[in-house]
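Q: Convert this sequence to structure tokens.
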Amino acid sequence: MEYIIRSKNISVTEAMDIHLRTTLDKIQKYEIMKNNKLVHVDLEYTKSGENDIKVSIDLTGKNNFLTATSKNKDFYKAVDLVLKKLEEQLKKIKDKITTNHTKRTSFAKVIDEEEYSDVELDEE
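A:
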């Protein structure tokens, strides 16, 4: 995957970059993200009121577009919260796909059972 990291009012250190890449590699286990080529990461430091770091991640999958945003004073916590949100979205999509797939196969099993019950066997 290719990562595009954009930052506003904050400089991205090597440790921050490594942490971002290792946490984003965790979502590669989902089948939906296998064809994903590009990940956009936006980092923004705000001074108004509380000193917060806003992390926003956009993922483009095969048939969907996922985005998650989190604010926290600590950069690493903000990245972990965004990863948690993305994993929840990916699990939801994965569950939809698997339940739709199992519905189709269970319907096929019912048809097969009906066909076998209608067949008469000749006993000689």
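The first strand starts at residue 2 and ends at 8.
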